[in-house]
Amino acid sequence: MDNQVVSFSVASFAAWAPGVETRDAWMAWARGEIGFNGDREPPVKAMAPMLRRRAGFLSKMALEVAYDCLGQKVDVPTIFCSRHGEALRSVELLTDLAKRAPLSPTSFGLSVHNATGGLFSIARADHANSIALSAGASGVEHAVIEACGLLAEGTTEVLLVVYDCPLPTIYASFQDCDERPFAWAWLLKPAREDGYSLRWRAGKNVRSHNGLPGGLEIFRFFLLMGRVLERASDGRQWIWTRHAK
Amino acid sequence: MPSLEDEIKQLIIDVLQLEDITPADIESEAPLFVEGLGLDSIDALELGVAIQKRYGITLSANAEENRRHFESVRALANMIGENVKNERS
Question: What percent of chain B has pLDDT over 90?
Answer without folding.
Answer: 58
